[in-house]
């Protein structure tokens, strides 16, 4: 009976909704003002859940008001052209409205949303707008997707609003901000491209940058920017007085002043993780009050002082500005910060009382082992940079790895990047993943020295150095997971491992050895090699692997409501972010089964989602044990073998005599 009533209600609901057709402009008898009135009257007389479909190709000077639950669509990319006045669509005091498929041009504002909720804007193009492409005030649950916004003053403005998702957006050539978030909560920007925002003019390096960023957040909470490109803006990202902010897996390139700029106010709980920040005047600049900041696994390189356009005091990877007042409980660790033409780390203004007479309150700061070149200029900051080593781990297999300058352990959460190996006249390139890389040479190429280079670091090893064993150890550090990275990841893959071993995850593999590590793993061995199993770290492995479960949690001050779960701790050493490389599948094929019995078996590769998020929980502590036999050892071995053979022959002779 209940199911019957539900079905009956659905049928009545569908029957009550209808489609209203808006004909081509030529269909209407009078000029555009009357046309505007007629269309608004049809919308006014529509019922909740009706569909308004525009059939015409072009309409002029429409200002459409929406205050009920309706869906407005165009199946042929209807163009609505204004005269720089009002909005093409004005949504007020309503909910459950959808607008899709329009081209909007020459308005004061393209689409205005005020005091409304559950609004869906998809597949629209908005350009040549005098003020803002999409303007949102005092609203909740706004979804803007698959939209292009071009040549406006501001691209998208979100003010005093909650729960906004901006996805698959392209914003270009905004005079002000590409996207601005003001006094808002729970704003998510993902898979978007924002370029040429702001005016690239010669302004003082210390003046305000309002309205000049690809994304600008002010007085906002729970802001997440991920998997997006922010290029050729005045600033890539600008932050002022905002908390619970994360930038992850973004490409931030060719921004005139700053890749990331922290301006005024107090910014708290910020994660900058796995971004590429390059070719700006300064990569990241910190000002005012910042606490609970984590900057880890970023590539911050090629930031150049722009004296050609009047910019000085630039060329820094990370800069601590003269306006920095409080810098509390922050971690900057395991980033690649190099090839910046002035100061890789610039703390001069923070530590020079003669040039800037002010006090800075700072404590619990961890500026850990960040990758810099030996000749990089670090000013006012004390760091212990990592260094590169090479091991021979098989007859023709070599491993390069990065050692943390602070801990002496493998820096397994360094960003993924290309490492180059040289032997003789041969050059080989592969990916450095989780602080290590493997290469298998052709035995005929082995001569002289094996050399490796990675972002200015280099290491050399004689090709015939004795093979080295490896022992896994537990991961060292925990980082705050603003993105819920610590979920179990699963996926499929085909890359086998090379032995039996235990990793912190599940994997399958075939090889010649056996070993023990942390966690679980399985494989089918063919030999009797002994030792400690290597970790299963192939991103294309089969199975599923939960990441290392860190104790405790650090929640946001306010949760991300329906759109995001609260934050957890995660062990950054044990979790891979999506690889920025085209493919990281084949990085660890090096351990061929013919070599595994010598150096210990390896567990099967753990899987990730597609080719990216894998779960690596082991670091390598490298035990360099050289097994060189002396002349006496060899002589003793020969003697024992000779005696053993004599005894066998004697026993055989006695057996024949008995019979």
From TrEMBL:
InterPro entries this protein is in?
Beta_helix, PbH1, Pectin_lyas_fold, Pectin_lyase_fold/virulence
Could you tell me which residues belong to the region Disordered? 479-550, 562-612
Q: Which Gene3D superfamilies match?
A: Single-stranded right-handed beta-helix, Pectin lyase-like
The record's annotation in Pfam families points to: Beta_helix
Signal sequence coordinates: none
TM stretches of this protein: 634-652
| Residue ranges of every copy of the Right handed beta helix domain listed in the record | 133-209, 213-343
Q: Where is the composition biased (Low complexity)?
A: 535-545, 575-600
Biased composition, Gly residues: where in the chain? 494-534
**Keyword terms:** Membrane, Transmembrane, Transmembrane helix
Its domain of life reads Archaea
Is-annotated flag, keyword Cell division? Answer: no
Put simply, this protein is called Right handed beta helix domain-containing protein
């Amino acid at each position: 009976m209940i199911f019957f009533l539900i079905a009956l209600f659905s049928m009545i609901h569908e029957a009550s909704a209808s489609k209203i057709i808006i004909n081509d402009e030529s269909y209407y008898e009078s000029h555009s003002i009357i046309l505007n009135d007629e269309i608004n009257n049809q919308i006014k007389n529509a019922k909740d859940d009706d569909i308004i479909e525009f059939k015409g190709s072009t309409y002029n000077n429409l200002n459409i008001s929406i205050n009920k639950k309706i869906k407005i669509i165009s199946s042929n990319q209807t163009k609505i052209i204004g005269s720089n006045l009002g909005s093409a669509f004005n949504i007020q005091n309503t909910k459950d409205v959808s607008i899709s498929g329009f081209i909007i041009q020459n308005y004061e504002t393209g689409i205005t949303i005020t005091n409304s909720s559950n609004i869906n804007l998809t597949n629209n193009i908005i350009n040549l707008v005098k003020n803002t492409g999409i303007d949102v005030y005092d609203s909740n649950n706004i979804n803007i997707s698959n939209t292009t916004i071009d040549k406006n003053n501001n691209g998208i403005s979100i003010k005093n609003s909650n729960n906004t998702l901006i996805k698959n957006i392209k914003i270009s050539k905004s005079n002000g901000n590409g996207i601005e978030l003001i006094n808002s909560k729970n704003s998510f920007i993902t898979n978007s491209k924002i370029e040429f925002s702001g005016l690239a003019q010669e302004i003082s390096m210390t003046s305000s940058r309002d309205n000049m960023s690809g994304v600008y957040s002010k007085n906002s909470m729970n802001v997440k920017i991920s998997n997006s490109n922010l290029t050729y803006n005045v600033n890539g990202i600008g932050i002022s007085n905002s908390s619970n902010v994360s930038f992850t897996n973004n490409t931030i390139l060719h921004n005139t002043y700053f890749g990331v700029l922290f301006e005024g106010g107090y910014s708290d709980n910020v994660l900058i993780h796995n971004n590429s920040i390059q070719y700006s005047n300064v990569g990241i600049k910190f000002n005012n009050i910042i606490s609970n900041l984590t900057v880890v696994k970023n590539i911050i390189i090629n930031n150049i002082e722009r004296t050609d356009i009047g910019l000085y005091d630039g060329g820094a990877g990370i800069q601590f500005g003269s306006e920095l007042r409080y810098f509390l409980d922050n971690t900057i660790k395991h980033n690649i910060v190099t090839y910046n033409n002035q100061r890789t780390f610039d703390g001069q203004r923070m530590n020079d009382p003669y040039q800037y007479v002010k006090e800075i309150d700072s404590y619990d700061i961890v500026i850990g082992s960040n990758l810099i070149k030996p000749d990089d200029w670090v000013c006012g900051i004390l760091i212990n940079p990592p260094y590169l080593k090479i091991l021979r781990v098989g007859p023709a297999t070599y491993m390069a790895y990065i050692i943390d300058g602070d801990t002496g352990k493998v820096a397994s959460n360094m960003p993924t990047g290309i490492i180059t190996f040289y032997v003789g006249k041969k050059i080989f390139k592969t990916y450095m993943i989780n602080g290590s890389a493997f290469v298998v040479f052709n035995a005929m190429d082995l001569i002289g020295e094996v050399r490796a280079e990675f972002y200015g670091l280099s290491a050399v090893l004689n090709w015939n150095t004795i093979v080295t064993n490896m022992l896994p150890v537990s991961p060292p550090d925990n980082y705050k997971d603003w993105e819920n990275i610590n979920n179990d990841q699963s996926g499929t893959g085909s890359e086998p491992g090379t032995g039996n071993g235990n990793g912190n995850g599940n994997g399958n593999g075939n090889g010649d050895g056996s070993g023990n590590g942390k966690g679980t793993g399985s494989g089918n061995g063919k030999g009797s090699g002994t030792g400690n199993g290597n970790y299963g770290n192939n991103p294309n492995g089969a199975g599923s692997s939960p990441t290392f479960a860190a104790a405790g949690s650090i929640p946001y001050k306010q949760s991300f409501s329906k759109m995001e779960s609260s934050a957890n701790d995660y062990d950054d050493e044990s979790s891979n972010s999506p690889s920025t490389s085209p493919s990281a599948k084949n990085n660890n094929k090096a351990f061929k089964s013919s070599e595994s019995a010598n150096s210990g078996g390896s567990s099967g590769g753990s899987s990730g989602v597609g080719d990216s998020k894998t779960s690596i929980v082991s670091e390598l502590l490298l035990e360099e044990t050289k097994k060189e036999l002396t002349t006496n050892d060899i002589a003793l071995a020969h003697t024992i073998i000779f005696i053993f053979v004599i005894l066998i022959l004697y026993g055989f002779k006695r057996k024949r005599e008995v019979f």
